[in-house]
Amino acid sequence: MQPAPDEIVLVRGGGDIATGVVWRLHHAGFRVLVAELPHPLTIRRTVAVSSAVTSGHVDIEGLAARRCDDEQSVRTCWDLGEIPVVVAPTIGDVPMSQPMSSIIDCRLAKQPLDSSMNDAEIVIALGPGFSVGTHCHAVIETMRGHRLGRALFSGMAEPNTGSPGEIEGKSAERVIRAPLRGCITWSSEIGDFVKEGTVLGEVAGETSMHVHAPFTGMVRGLIAPGSQVSVGLKIADIDPRHDPEACVQISDKALAVGGGVVEALHRLSTRS
């Protein structure tokens, strides 16, 4: 099935997993529009279209994404073969006169938030917290393992475990969370190879606390410097492998999930 040229697929969220979805949709011929927060909370910023919100433009493996602030700039972006990214916390904030034909909720909030299957003709959601028939028409499994990327047309995805997938024996410790409420500054950059205990940055609030590397590895992700963070918010990601390409390439997980979205979209579009 060839996507209709006038149909718009709205992707809510522009993080690293959402970028895998955008990549798959774009290369499958869909016209994609990304909606993000004014201050994205993305960690893996070097492989996320959300980075266009603050930088204005980002290129990820040849996929160009650009911030757009009105409908004309969105359409110009499409004409250039690029991905438009708009600041739109709610669907009503999307600066388009044309309704969205499909909506993909890629915010990975582990809960439905404001999602409803009535938001568009086709609504697809990623990960746990969404129920097919209530919040969406299909759910895509995001948990690593045998079912990763599977399109589900009934029920729900696997529940949230609270821990990321294991890499070389490291799981929960790979994720660094804010120790207190405040503003984050970094002394390290994505791609740096750091030793255990290295000071990566600092959170400054009522007091200040350093953020340390929990083990020796590569800095795979850092929330944008200057971000206001709350206690427990994910702010960094350390990878025990020393693979610099992992910082600039869309992950296998993101592409698997993206493939599930394309499958679900095709199957739902052809249902009578």
Question: What's a concise summary of this model?
Answer:
This protein has 272 residues and is α/β, with parallel strands linked by helices. It has 4 helices and 17 strands.
Topology:
Elements: E1 8-12, H1 16-27, E2 31-36, H2 52-55, E3 57-60, E4 63-67, H3 71-79, E5 83-87, E6 102-105, E7 122-126, E8 138-140, E9 151-152, E10 175-177, E11 182-186, E12 193-194, E13 199-204, E14 208-212, E15 217-222, E16 228-229, E17 234-239, H4 252-269
Parallel strand pairs: 1-2, 1-6, 2-5, 4-5, 6-7, 7-8
Antiparallel strand pairs: 3-4, 8-9, 10-17, 11-13, 11-16, 12-15, 13-14, 15-17
Helix pairs in contact: 1-4
Characteristic key phrases:
4 helices, nine-stranded mixed beta sheet, 2 domains, OB fold (Dihydrolipoamide Acetyltransferase, E2P), 272 residues, Rossmann fold, four-stranded antiparallel beta sheet, alpha/beta, 27% strand
- How many helical stretches? 4
Structural class category:
alpha/beta
Widest sheet, order of strands? 3-4-5-2-1-6-7-8-9
Amino- and carboxy-terminal Cα gap? 14 Å
Whole-number count of domains: 2
CATH hierarchy, class of the largest domain: Alpha Beta
- The arrangement of helices and strands along the chain is EHEHEEHEEEEEEEEEEEEEH
Q: Report the helical percentage.
A: 10-25%
Provide a descriptive summary of the structure in words.
There is one protein chain. With 272 residues, the chain is of the alpha/beta class. It has two domains: 171 residues, Rossmann fold (3-Layer(aba) Sandwich); 69 residues, OB fold (Dihydrolipoamide Acetyltransferase, E2P) (Beta Barrel), CATH 2.40.50. It is built from four helices and 17 strands. The strands form three sheets. It has a nine-stranded mixed β-sheet with strand order 3-4-5-2-1-6-7-8-9, with helices on both faces. The longest helix has 18 residues. The mean pLDDT is 94.
